[in-house]
Design a protein that fits this description.
By secondary structure, the chain is α+β, with helices and mostly antiparallel strands. It contains 3 helices and 5 strands, in the order ααβββββα. The protein has a 5-stranded mixed β-sheet with strand order 1-2-3-5-4.
């Protein structure tokens, strides 16, 4: 391989300019006082201070989640439970068959909202059956069509040698 000496010369000048500019704009060295050793009180507070940050972050996160979800949670006084507003006409709540009725009507400021539970379990069960049946077959079809099926190692042209 032949190398162009002009190209190398230009690279050397550019790198020299970059180093010169970096040397000129570098921060000045500041002489600071030596740090004193922490006291026993500071050392004893260190574990609690270290744990406080993540706890405050989690508390802030959960407070935000609660604020976002508060409009969707309603109280069902007739059954002594809370429910989640599913749509304008429905509220979903947990139900024990021997204790709670199938449908509960709850009064909210915008009007009456119906609550339901059996339909949700039927829809969830049907969705799981469909996804577990169609999902693996679709995944295999996609892998075969893309040519990724049966590849235990990378292609030979993708291996880099140093």
């Amino acid at each position: 391989m032949s190398r162009n000496p002009r190209y190398i010369f230009i690279l050397a000048i550019v790198s020299g300019l970059i180093l010169s500019v970096g040397w000129l704009v570098r921060p000045s060295e500041s002489i600071s006082e030596p740090l004193s050793a922490p006291s026993q009180v500071e050392l004893s507070r260190l574990p609690s201070l270290r744990q406080r940050g993540p706890l405050e972050e989690m508390a802030e996160f959960f407070a935000g989640v609660a604020t976002d979800l508060a409009p969707a949670v309603v109280r069902l006084p007739s059954v002594g439970r809370s429910g989640v507003v599913w749509s304008a006409e429905r509220v979903v709540t947990a139900r024990l068959p021997w204790r709670f009725p199938t449908v509960v009507t709850v009064a909210v400021p915008n009007g009456d909202v119906g609550a339901f539970a059996p339909q949700v379990s039927t829809v969830v069960l049907a969705a799981v059956v469909i996804y577990e049946t169609v999902g693996p077959v679709s995944t295999r079809f996609a892998l075969v069509r893309s040519g990724e099926a049966g590849m235990d190692h990378p292609a030979s042209d993708a291996v880099f040698e140093m």
